[in-house]
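#struct-help
A.M.: can someone run this one for me? Single chain, 421 residues.
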Amino acid sequence: MKVLVSSDDTGGAKLAIFKRGTDTSKQDAIQPEAITNCLIQPYSNYGSRIIHLLNYNYQYLIASRYGGILSIFDFEEKEEKENDKANKDDANEETLFEHLHDYRIPVEKDDKPVALVKAEKLDSVFVAYESGKVFVIYIGDFKFEPLLINLSNSGPISAFTNNPRRENVFAYGGKENDLQIVELYDAKVNSTIFKKEDYRLVFSPKTIFKAKNVKNDHLNLRVPIWITNVLFFSDKKEGSCKHYNLITSTRYGQLRIYDTAHGRRPIKDFQVAEKPIVTLTFASEEENEVIVTDTHNMIAKYSLTQIDDKAFKTNSASAGNIIKPVPKLLGKFTGGNTGATFGVQIHEELATFAGLDRYLRVFDLDTRQVLAKVYLGVEASSLLIIDDEDEEDEDQKRKREEEEAEDEQMWDQLNKKQKQK
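D.P.: on it. C-alpha coordinates below:
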Protein backbone atom coordinates (compact mmCIF):
# COMPACT_ATOMS: atom_id res chain seq x y z
CA MET A 1 0.00 0.00 0.00
CA LYS A 2 1.02 3.60 -0.53
CA VAL A 3 -0.47 6.31 1.66
CA LEU A 4 0.47 9.98 1.58
CA VAL A 5 0.15 11.69 4.97
CA SER A 6 0.65 15.39 5.69
CA SER A 7 3.43 16.26 8.12
CA ASP A 8 2.43 19.13 10.38
CA ASP A 9 5.89 19.19 11.93
CA THR A 10 7.75 19.87 8.67
CA GLY A 11 5.15 21.48 6.41
CA GLY A 12 5.55 18.66 3.90
CA ALA A 13 4.26 15.09 3.77
CA LYS A 14 5.39 11.50 4.16
CA LEU A 15 4.79 8.71 1.68
CA ALA A 16 4.44 5.41 3.55
CA ILE A 17 4.85 2.17 1.58
CA PHE A 18 3.85 -0.96 3.49
CA LYS A 19 1.93 -4.22 3.36
CA ARG A 20 -1.05 -5.46 5.28
CA GLY A 21 0.18 -6.85 8.58
CA THR A 22 2.74 -4.08 9.08
CA ASP A 23 3.08 -3.03 12.73
CA THR A 24 5.97 -0.80 13.74
CA SER A 25 5.10 -1.23 17.44
CA LYS A 26 6.26 -4.88 17.30
CA GLN A 27 9.82 -5.85 16.44
CA ASP A 28 8.87 -9.26 15.03
CA ALA A 29 6.06 -7.90 12.83
CA ILE A 30 6.29 -6.80 9.20
CA GLN A 31 7.97 -3.39 8.90
CA PRO A 32 7.30 -0.63 6.31
CA GLU A 33 9.17 -0.87 3.03
CA ALA A 34 9.76 2.89 3.06
CA ILE A 35 8.68 6.12 4.74
CA THR A 36 9.84 9.01 2.59
CA ASN A 37 9.62 12.77 3.01
CA CYS A 38 8.00 14.61 0.10
CA LEU A 39 5.99 17.71 -0.91
CA ILE A 40 8.57 19.83 0.88
CA GLN A 41 9.26 23.29 -0.50
CA PRO A 42 11.75 25.98 0.63
CA TYR A 43 9.00 27.85 2.52
CA SER A 44 7.62 24.74 4.23
CA ASN A 45 7.31 24.98 7.98
CA TYR A 46 4.62 24.74 10.62
CA GLY A 47 3.18 28.04 9.45
CA SER A 48 2.64 26.71 5.93
CA ARG A 49 1.71 23.14 6.83
CA ILE A 50 -0.65 21.10 4.66
CA ILE A 51 -4.28 21.01 5.84
CA HIS A 52 -5.89 19.18 2.89
CA LEU A 53 -4.67 16.77 0.21
CA LEU A 54 -6.59 16.17 -3.01
CA ASN A 55 -6.11 13.72 -5.88
CA TYR A 56 -7.12 15.74 -8.94
CA ASN A 57 -8.06 13.11 -11.56
CA TYR A 58 -4.76 11.24 -11.09
CA GLN A 59 -3.10 14.18 -12.84
CA TYR A 60 -2.22 16.47 -9.95
CA LEU A 61 -1.70 16.30 -6.23
CA ILE A 62 -3.16 19.47 -4.73
CA ALA A 63 -2.32 20.63 -1.21
CA SER A 64 -4.00 23.52 0.57
CA ARG A 65 -1.60 25.03 3.07
CA TYR A 66 -1.89 27.31 6.03
CA GLY A 67 -0.99 30.89 5.09
CA GLY A 68 -2.89 31.10 1.81
CA ILE A 69 -0.82 28.75 -0.36
CA LEU A 70 -2.22 26.16 -2.77
CA SER A 71 0.52 23.82 -4.05
CA ILE A 72 0.21 21.78 -7.25
CA PHE A 73 2.33 18.65 -7.75
CA ASP A 74 2.54 16.08 -10.52
CA PHE A 75 0.59 13.02 -9.34
CA GLU A 76 3.02 10.62 -11.00
CA GLU A 77 5.93 9.79 -8.73
CA LYS A 78 9.23 11.13 -9.97
CA GLU A 79 12.18 8.74 -9.94
CA GLU A 80 15.05 9.75 -7.69
CA LYS A 81 18.10 11.07 -9.42
CA GLU A 82 21.43 9.33 -8.88
CA ASN A 83 22.81 12.15 -6.78
CA ASP A 84 19.67 12.10 -4.62
CA LYS A 85 20.19 8.47 -3.67
CA ALA A 86 23.35 9.38 -1.80
CA ASN A 87 21.43 11.92 0.25
CA LYS A 88 18.38 9.97 1.43
CA ASP A 89 18.62 11.48 4.92
CA ASP A 90 18.20 14.99 3.54
CA ALA A 91 14.42 15.56 3.39
CA ASN A 92 14.78 18.42 0.92
CA GLU A 93 16.38 16.09 -1.61
CA GLU A 94 13.32 13.84 -1.78
CA THR A 95 11.37 14.81 -4.91
CA LEU A 96 8.88 11.99 -5.33
CA PHE A 97 6.24 14.32 -6.73
CA GLU A 98 7.41 17.14 -8.96
CA HIS A 99 6.36 20.57 -7.76
CA LEU A 100 4.57 22.40 -10.59
CA HIS A 101 3.10 25.61 -9.21
CA ASP A 102 1.99 27.58 -6.15
CA TYR A 103 -1.06 29.79 -6.03
CA ARG A 104 -0.81 32.65 -3.54
CA ILE A 105 -4.28 33.30 -2.17
CA PRO A 106 -4.92 36.77 -0.68
CA VAL A 107 -5.93 35.87 2.88
CA GLU A 108 -4.51 36.65 6.31
CA LYS A 109 -1.66 34.37 7.44
CA ASP A 110 -3.75 32.94 10.29
CA ASP A 111 -6.80 32.34 8.08
CA LYS A 112 -7.05 28.54 8.06
CA PRO A 113 -8.41 26.63 5.05
CA VAL A 114 -11.45 24.57 6.02
CA ALA A 115 -12.13 22.81 2.71
CA LEU A 116 -10.57 21.92 -0.65
CA VAL A 117 -13.28 20.88 -3.13
CA LYS A 118 -12.92 19.62 -6.71
CA ALA A 119 -15.26 20.88 -9.46
CA GLU A 120 -14.68 18.62 -12.47
CA LYS A 121 -16.96 20.44 -14.95
CA LEU A 122 -15.03 23.64 -14.32
CA ASP A 123 -11.56 22.02 -14.27
CA SER A 124 -11.22 23.87 -10.99
CA VAL A 125 -11.02 23.65 -7.24
CA PHE A 126 -12.71 25.71 -4.54
CA VAL A 127 -10.79 26.65 -1.40
CA ALA A 128 -12.76 27.92 1.61
CA TYR A 129 -11.30 29.69 4.64
CA GLU A 130 -12.45 30.19 8.22
CA SER A 131 -13.01 33.88 7.54
CA GLY A 132 -15.80 32.95 5.12
CA LYS A 133 -13.74 33.76 2.02
CA VAL A 134 -14.09 31.26 -0.84
CA PHE A 135 -11.85 31.19 -3.92
CA VAL A 136 -12.27 29.35 -7.22
CA ILE A 137 -9.01 28.38 -8.96
CA TYR A 138 -8.90 27.23 -12.56
CA ILE A 139 -6.39 24.38 -12.73
CA GLY A 140 -6.32 24.32 -16.53
CA ASP A 141 -4.04 27.37 -16.60
CA PHE A 142 -1.48 28.08 -13.87
CA LYS A 143 -1.50 31.76 -14.87
CA PHE A 144 -5.05 32.09 -13.57
CA GLU A 145 -5.43 34.31 -10.51
CA PRO A 146 -7.64 32.93 -7.69
CA LEU A 147 -11.11 34.48 -7.88
CA LEU A 148 -12.79 35.56 -4.64
CA ILE A 149 -16.44 34.60 -4.27
CA ASN A 150 -18.38 36.53 -1.64
CA LEU A 151 -20.84 34.26 0.11
CA SER A 152 -24.06 36.03 0.94
CA ASN A 153 -24.60 36.76 4.65
CA SER A 154 -21.48 34.77 5.52
CA GLY A 155 -19.74 34.76 8.88
CA PRO A 156 -16.96 32.49 10.11
CA ILE A 157 -17.21 29.01 8.59
CA SER A 158 -15.84 25.65 9.71
CA ALA A 159 -17.36 23.51 6.95
CA PHE A 160 -17.82 23.91 3.21
CA THR A 161 -18.76 21.21 0.70
CA ASN A 162 -20.50 20.66 -2.62
CA ASN A 163 -23.29 18.34 -3.65
CA PRO A 164 -21.68 15.47 -5.61
CA ARG A 165 -24.88 15.13 -7.66
CA ARG A 166 -25.24 18.85 -8.39
CA GLU A 167 -21.74 20.26 -8.60
CA ASN A 168 -22.81 23.91 -8.55
CA VAL A 169 -24.63 23.58 -5.21
CA PHE A 170 -22.66 24.08 -1.98
CA ALA A 171 -23.41 24.04 1.73
CA TYR A 172 -21.53 25.68 4.59
CA GLY A 173 -21.75 26.64 8.25
CA GLY A 174 -19.66 27.48 11.29
CA LYS A 175 -19.64 29.14 14.68
CA GLU A 176 -22.98 30.90 15.13
CA ASN A 177 -23.40 30.53 11.38
CA ASP A 178 -26.14 27.99 10.77
CA LEU A 179 -26.36 25.72 7.75
CA GLN A 180 -26.86 27.43 4.39
CA ILE A 181 -27.14 26.00 0.89
CA VAL A 182 -26.11 28.19 -2.03
CA GLU A 183 -25.92 27.90 -5.78
CA LEU A 184 -22.54 29.39 -6.67
CA TYR A 185 -22.98 29.36 -10.45
CA ASP A 186 -25.38 28.17 -13.12
CA ALA A 187 -25.43 24.40 -13.65
CA LYS A 188 -24.89 24.83 -17.40
CA VAL A 189 -21.52 26.55 -16.95
CA ASN A 190 -18.35 24.60 -17.81
CA SER A 191 -14.60 25.27 -17.95
CA THR A 192 -14.83 27.28 -21.18
CA ILE A 193 -16.19 30.17 -19.12
CA PHE A 194 -12.64 31.01 -17.97
CA LYS A 195 -11.70 31.91 -21.55
CA LYS A 196 -14.23 34.73 -21.55
CA GLU A 197 -13.54 38.18 -20.17
CA ASP A 198 -16.70 38.31 -18.07
CA TYR A 199 -16.17 34.97 -16.29
CA ARG A 200 -16.24 36.74 -12.90
CA LEU A 201 -19.92 37.55 -13.35
CA VAL A 202 -20.80 33.84 -13.47
CA PHE A 203 -19.97 33.30 -9.79
CA SER A 204 -22.85 35.01 -8.03
CA PRO A 205 -24.04 33.01 -4.99
CA LYS A 206 -27.78 32.54 -4.56
CA THR A 207 -29.03 31.31 -1.18
CA ILE A 208 -31.56 28.51 -1.69
CA PHE A 209 -31.86 27.27 1.90
CA LYS A 210 -31.07 28.67 5.33
CA ALA A 211 -31.50 26.44 8.36
CA LYS A 212 -33.20 27.42 11.57
CA ASN A 213 -31.78 26.51 14.95
CA VAL A 214 -33.29 23.67 16.98
CA LYS A 215 -35.79 24.52 19.68
CA ASN A 216 -34.61 25.71 23.10
CA ASP A 217 -33.38 23.05 25.50
CA HIS A 218 -35.16 21.70 28.59
CA LEU A 219 -34.14 24.84 30.52
CA ASN A 220 -35.59 26.99 27.73
CA LEU A 221 -32.10 28.17 26.84
CA ARG A 222 -30.97 28.78 23.30
CA VAL A 223 -28.84 25.95 21.87
CA PRO A 224 -25.49 27.27 20.55
CA ILE A 225 -24.55 26.75 16.89
CA TRP A 226 -21.16 25.52 15.69
CA ILE A 227 -21.15 23.34 12.60
CA THR A 228 -17.92 21.39 11.98
CA ASN A 229 -18.84 19.22 8.96
CA VAL A 230 -21.52 19.04 6.27
CA LEU A 231 -22.32 16.14 3.93
CA PHE A 232 -24.98 15.88 1.22
CA PHE A 233 -26.57 12.46 0.88
CA SER A 234 -28.98 10.97 -1.63
CA ASP A 235 -32.58 10.06 -1.05
CA LYS A 236 -35.06 8.20 -3.25
CA LYS A 237 -37.45 11.14 -2.91
CA GLU A 238 -34.81 13.68 -3.96
CA GLY A 239 -36.11 14.63 -7.37
CA SER A 240 -36.50 18.37 -7.16
CA CYS A 241 -33.64 20.83 -7.45
CA LYS A 242 -35.08 22.47 -4.33
CA HIS A 243 -34.96 19.28 -2.26
CA TYR A 244 -31.74 18.34 -0.47
CA ASN A 245 -30.75 15.93 2.27
CA LEU A 246 -27.79 16.76 4.48
CA ILE A 247 -26.11 15.68 7.67
CA THR A 248 -24.04 18.00 9.86
CA SER A 249 -21.80 17.52 12.87
CA THR A 250 -21.20 20.10 15.58
CA ARG A 251 -18.60 21.27 18.03
CA TYR A 252 -20.97 20.07 20.75
CA GLY A 253 -20.96 16.39 19.72
CA GLN A 254 -24.21 16.40 17.76
CA LEU A 255 -25.27 14.89 14.44
CA ARG A 256 -28.20 16.61 12.71
CA ILE A 257 -30.08 15.45 9.63
CA TYR A 258 -31.87 17.92 7.37
CA ASP A 259 -34.48 17.40 4.68
CA THR A 260 -35.09 20.75 3.04
CA ALA A 261 -38.55 19.60 1.92
CA HIS A 262 -39.60 19.36 5.57
CA GLY A 263 -38.75 22.80 6.89
CA ARG A 264 -35.72 24.69 8.06
CA ARG A 265 -35.08 22.80 11.29
CA PRO A 266 -33.30 19.42 11.34
CA ILE A 267 -35.64 16.45 11.19
CA LYS A 268 -33.30 14.51 13.52
CA ASP A 269 -30.95 15.76 16.23
CA PHE A 270 -28.65 13.21 17.87
CA GLN A 271 -26.08 13.54 20.66
CA VAL A 272 -23.33 11.03 19.87
CA ALA A 273 -20.22 12.45 21.59
CA GLU A 274 -19.23 14.47 24.62
CA LYS A 275 -16.26 16.03 22.82
CA PRO A 276 -16.29 18.21 19.66
CA ILE A 277 -16.65 16.24 16.42
CA VAL A 278 -13.78 16.98 14.03
CA THR A 279 -14.47 14.68 11.05
CA LEU A 280 -17.60 13.17 9.52
CA THR A 281 -17.28 10.62 6.71
CA PHE A 282 -19.69 8.25 4.98
CA ALA A 283 -18.72 4.64 5.63
CA SER A 284 -20.43 3.17 2.57
CA GLU A 285 -21.60 4.03 -0.93
CA GLU A 286 -25.16 3.64 0.29
CA GLU A 287 -24.53 6.66 2.58
CA ASN A 288 -26.46 5.04 5.44
CA GLU A 289 -23.51 4.85 7.85
CA VAL A 290 -21.04 7.47 9.04
CA ILE A 291 -17.67 7.42 10.77
CA VAL A 292 -17.14 10.12 13.39
CA THR A 293 -13.93 11.25 15.10
CA ASP A 294 -13.66 13.70 17.97
CA THR A 295 -10.97 15.85 19.60
CA HIS A 296 -10.09 13.09 22.08
CA ASN A 297 -9.55 9.57 20.70
CA MET A 298 -12.94 8.36 19.49
CA ILE A 299 -13.29 6.79 16.03
CA ALA A 300 -16.80 5.36 15.81
CA LYS A 301 -19.19 4.10 13.14
CA TYR A 302 -22.91 4.90 13.41
CA SER A 303 -25.96 3.79 11.46
CA LEU A 304 -28.24 6.47 10.05
CA THR A 305 -31.14 4.04 9.63
CA GLN A 306 -31.04 2.07 12.89
CA ILE A 307 -31.94 4.23 15.88
CA ASP A 308 -31.70 3.38 19.60
CA ASP A 309 -34.63 5.30 21.06
CA LYS A 310 -33.33 5.26 24.64
CA ALA A 311 -29.58 5.30 24.17
CA PHE A 312 -28.72 8.81 25.43
CA LYS A 313 -29.50 9.44 29.06
CA THR A 314 -28.79 12.45 31.23
CA ASN A 315 -30.17 13.93 34.43
CA SER A 316 -31.38 17.45 35.01
CA ALA A 317 -32.17 18.91 38.42
CA SER A 318 -35.18 20.71 36.97
CA ALA A 319 -36.40 18.25 34.35
CA GLY A 320 -35.28 14.94 35.88
CA ASN A 321 -34.10 12.10 33.64
CA ILE A 322 -33.82 13.04 29.96
CA ILE A 323 -33.78 10.25 27.41
CA LYS A 324 -33.06 10.89 23.73
CA PRO A 325 -32.68 8.66 20.65
CA VAL A 326 -29.22 8.05 19.20
CA PRO A 327 -28.08 6.38 15.96
CA LYS A 328 -27.05 2.82 16.64
CA LEU A 329 -23.34 2.49 17.37
CA LEU A 330 -22.01 -0.13 14.93
CA GLY A 331 -18.59 -0.26 16.56
CA LYS A 332 -15.44 1.65 17.37
CA PHE A 333 -12.08 1.48 15.62
CA THR A 334 -9.63 0.75 18.41
CA GLY A 335 -6.00 0.44 17.49
CA GLY A 336 -4.41 2.19 20.44
CA ASN A 337 -5.03 5.73 19.18
CA THR A 338 -4.41 8.33 21.87
CA GLY A 339 -5.18 11.64 20.17
CA ALA A 340 -7.56 13.44 17.83
CA THR A 341 -7.88 12.00 14.33
CA PHE A 342 -7.97 14.58 11.51
CA GLY A 343 -6.99 12.51 8.46
CA VAL A 344 -9.69 10.05 7.37
CA GLN A 345 -10.24 8.23 4.08
CA ILE A 346 -12.62 5.39 3.29
CA HIS A 347 -11.64 3.42 0.20
CA GLU A 348 -13.59 0.28 -0.74
CA GLU A 349 -13.03 -2.13 2.17
CA LEU A 350 -10.40 0.01 3.91
CA ALA A 351 -10.68 2.71 6.59
CA THR A 352 -7.50 4.75 7.01
CA PHE A 353 -6.78 7.20 9.84
CA ALA A 354 -4.00 9.53 11.01
CA GLY A 355 -3.82 12.34 13.55
CA LEU A 356 -2.08 13.77 16.56
CA ASP A 357 -0.61 10.54 17.97
CA ARG A 358 1.74 10.29 14.93
CA TYR A 359 0.48 6.89 13.75
CA LEU A 360 -1.09 5.85 10.46
CA ARG A 361 -3.65 3.06 10.94
CA VAL A 362 -5.48 0.99 8.35
CA PHE A 363 -8.57 -1.01 9.34
CA ASP A 364 -10.89 -3.44 7.65
CA LEU A 365 -14.03 -1.36 7.23
CA ASP A 366 -16.47 -4.16 8.13
CA THR A 367 -14.66 -6.09 10.86
CA ARG A 368 -12.71 -3.06 12.20
CA GLN A 369 -9.63 -5.29 12.44
CA VAL A 370 -6.28 -3.47 12.30
CA LEU A 371 -4.61 -4.28 8.99
CA ALA A 372 -1.56 -2.03 9.39
CA LYS A 373 -0.10 0.30 11.99
CA VAL A 374 2.76 2.59 10.97
CA TYR A 375 4.55 5.09 13.20
CA LEU A 376 5.27 8.22 11.16
CA GLY A 377 6.80 10.42 13.84
CA VAL A 378 4.76 13.46 12.78
CA GLU A 379 1.32 14.88 13.54
CA ALA A 380 -1.07 14.74 10.59
CA SER A 381 -3.99 16.83 9.35
CA SER A 382 -4.86 14.84 6.22
CA LEU A 383 -4.06 11.71 4.24
CA LEU A 384 -4.54 10.31 0.77
CA ILE A 385 -4.45 6.67 -0.36
CA ILE A 386 -2.22 6.49 -3.45
CA ASP A 387 -2.36 2.72 -3.93
CA ASP A 388 -4.35 0.21 -1.86
CA GLU A 389 -2.68 -2.92 -3.25
CA ASP A 390 0.15 -4.81 -1.57
CA GLU A 391 3.19 -5.08 -3.81
CA GLU A 392 4.33 -8.66 -4.33
CA ASP A 393 7.77 -9.72 -3.23
CA GLU A 394 9.88 -11.91 -5.52
CA ASP A 395 8.78 -15.22 -3.93
CA GLN A 396 5.10 -14.32 -4.19
CA LYS A 397 5.51 -13.16 -7.78
CA ARG A 398 7.36 -16.35 -8.78
CA LYS A 399 4.76 -18.54 -7.05
CA ARG A 400 1.89 -16.71 -8.77
CA GLU A 401 3.56 -16.98 -12.19
CA GLU A 402 4.17 -20.73 -11.65
CA GLU A 403 0.50 -21.23 -10.70
CA GLU A 404 -0.65 -19.30 -13.75
CA ALA A 405 1.65 -21.39 -15.98
CA GLU A 406 0.29 -24.64 -14.48
CA ASP A 407 -3.29 -23.46 -15.02
CA GLU A 408 -2.52 -22.56 -18.63
CA GLN A 409 -0.87 -25.94 -19.23
CA MET A 410 -3.88 -27.75 -17.75
CA TRP A 411 -6.32 -25.87 -20.00
CA ASP A 412 -4.15 -26.62 -23.06
CA GLN A 413 -4.28 -30.33 -22.24
CA LEU A 414 -8.06 -30.22 -21.79
CA ASN A 415 -8.47 -28.43 -25.11
CA LYS A 416 -6.33 -31.06 -26.89
CA LYS A 417 -8.39 -33.91 -25.42
CA GLN A 418 -11.59 -32.12 -26.45
CA LYS A 419 -10.35 -31.80 -30.04
CA GLN A 420 -9.34 -35.52 -30.16
CA LYS A 421 -12.90 -36.50 -29.26
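A.M.: thanks! Confidence is low (pLDDT under 50) at residues 80-93.
D.P.: also worth noting: The two ends are 49 Å apart (CA to CA).
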